[in-house]
Write a structure and sequence with these properties.
Among the domains are: 187 residues; 49 residues. By secondary structure, the chain is of the alpha+beta class. Helix 1 packs antiparallel against helix 4 and helix 2 runs antiparallel to helix 4. Strand 3 and strand 4 form a beta hairpin. Helices cover 55% and strands 10% of the residues. The radius of gyration is 25 Å and the shape is globular. It has 13 helices and eight strands.
Amino acid sequence: MQRLLSRAIWLKIHLYLALIAGFFFALIGLTGSVSIYREELDMLLNPRLVIEQPLGKRLSLDKMMAAVRAAHPDRHGAWTLEMPRSAHGMVTVWYDKPRETFFELYAPLMVSVNPYTAEVVASRFWGQTLTTWLLDLHTQLQLNRFGWNAVGIVGVLLMLSIGTGVYLWWPGIPNILGALKIRHKAGLVRLAFDLHRLAGLLSAAVLLLLAFTGFHLSYPAVLETLAGASGMEHGGTGRTIISTAIPNNHPVSLESAEFLARGPFPRAELRRVTTPAGDSGIYRINLRQSSEINRRHPYTTVWVDRWSGHIKEVRDPSGFTSGEVFASWIWPVHTGEAFGAGARFIWFVAGFVPLLLYVTGLLHWLHRHGKVNDREVSLAALRPLFARLKKWGHRTALMLFRLGNLLLGKAKYYAPIMLKNALALWQWLRLKVMMNRQKRIGR
């Protein structure tokens, strides 16, 4: 009796979570799937952002920055130059708080610069392009700070919904095979219910991981408290460092600052350079070491004084505590880049599952309340639908082919790098374990 009562309570919790938040689960899942390939989709929609034939070596950072300042002479303060991840991509130069979008939560100016000619190809505001608008819908429901916090709460509700769903599905070990069957001959409602249970079970681990990491991206202070790692939130720049040197007529150039920053990390890849703001401003150079799983937002950072050329501070992930390492994994795990191109595709597919769960669960609930009648599932009756889908598929085949070629090219490029990084990460973990053992022995 107690078991039946407990199951009934969990069933109601699962039902009410789906009815109240199921739409938001589906919405965030779909926009998250599209955002997995945000950059690739943006280049597909804007061919001018793709450099078909790279012209040799890129120009200096100073020439690119000069072109940006010439195109935007009235924008003063810090700019961040983000390096492309392929020879065919543009350098993106970010201006965090343009006056046009100053009061929005996050809406920087994005300037696309050809690294081989220093031509300013495009100047766009975040949130005013399709891909960035969809990403804002995913992260904040287009409701600024309130929406940002609400998405974090939706992540918690999704974890609870998945947990109750798996509990309600569990049939006991002797009945597992029967619980995995799809019975299309038992009617549409039964088919929808079987799809609901199977899809939920197969995607439970990935969706739990996405919901967990998504919550911590919405509430980074919780992660900092749990991990004991401050300044590790996604997009964080670490603590504020200012110049203490006297301003002079011979400031360090962007190219020189990059050269100085490579001193501690000669084999690292340049990812970002942030220019100084004001006389007390300082260069912040973000590099990526081969052992870092963060490809887009690595944590290796060097601060270089503009006036003296001295390295003021260095942040090296190889010296991170276990809590800081954990915090550094949140973003790349959420986007799938931590596990390579294959994981990104799995994450992409998983984003569609909440919509499937919402539709099939709602259909089952409406049938139980007499709002929808069951009907026979006839595969023959689906043939006209398949014909229409085939016709629609011909219209989109070219776009999908181009996107597939783009993704395949990136997969071929990153596959050896991922293998190398996996081996480097394994060696690093072994070294950390050995060092911890030596410390315990020394104590």
